[in-house]
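Re: the request from the purification team.
They wanted to know what the chain is likely to look like in 3D before they choose a buffer screen. I agreed to run a prediction and write the result into the notebook, where they can find it.
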Amino acid sequence: MLQGNAIIGQSGGPTSVINSSMIGVVQAALKADFIENMYGMRYGIEGFLEENIVDFDEEDPQVLEDLRSTPSSALGSCRLKLQDDHLPQVLELLKKYNIRYMFLIGGNDSMDTIHRVEAYAKEHGYEMHGIGVAKTVDNDLFGTDHTPGFASAARYMALSVQHAGILARDMKKVDQYVIFQCIGREAGWLVGATAAGKRSEEEAPHLMCFPERAFDKDKFLADFKACYDKYGFVSIVCGEGITFADGRPVSASETADKFGNTEFGAMGGTSAAMALHKMIADEFDFRGEFQVTESLPMCAADRASQQDLDEAYNCGAKAVELAAAGETGVMVAMQRGAGSEYVCEYVTAPLSEVAVNAKPMPDEYINAEGNFVTEAFLDYLKPLVGDMPHYAKLSDARVAVPAN
């Protein structure tokens, strides 16, 4: 078994459970005989290039344990796009610190980073095992049933829309609609998840706009009017990355990050929710609200799912187990067992495939109208978000008109 040091990094946006994955790796590595020192890269690969490295052997074990339920990214993150001319320096640092195992927690771009580092080291005769740990609230990573972080973010969004829907129902004489925007550039998993608390037709949400479906303004306004006529108010959930049929973002943003990803709602554009708000106001002269949560569902530890925390930790521990078995070039993934009872198994997906593929919502999870989820999706979602709260509602009965 290859002896040497290991290093771990966190990359991209956080989740409520990303630290649990990190500690899953760290605690398993500290017990492993083949790992001499367990290091962490501050601020991802960018910090590694600056030799901003911490030694987990020097950390208080209780602090490490407490990090399992701490929000955000404890090591710090970055969005540096690794360039080819960075790779020689990365290799020199791997050799300098005798790093033989690299773990990176992140999404597609992070899996691409570790894949390229691992391949470059192999090409130049340096034995180094690279293993990725899945992370994204968007739930769009290829090769896994769901990602650590999605369940907690899904619960956050579902509770938010449920609560905002009750408010909208009771305030419908003031505001006739409310629009809630979800993160997720090209996948509508979180949009769909907001239906987790819906128990009746009247309850929120009423309409969904998915990145997987081209946005049709006329159809949207017609669907809105039908819901308003039926319920007296409308709760709408949209993905930040919804586009028109020609590919134009509804947000009209022209700003991109270092990976070329459109930054919806950034300077230079508007948000999808604001754009929908204006369409409705212009068409019907209604008053309404829009809510854009941005990073809140990524770091809401108070709404984290315990199952999500546990699965995130297990993914981290599995990464070290794979390293011990000599695996490299893979990402720890989760596979749902067959049968009606939810069971999660920990498997692998090739980094080369995860880095270049995405996982949009399947067609069978979106209804024929393209404006809501199906029962199949709710069946998929339920074991992840858990039970949702039930709130009371007054009856609609009126006092009888007094007799003369």
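For the purification team: The two ends are 94 Å apart (CA to CA).
Please add any questions underneath this entry.
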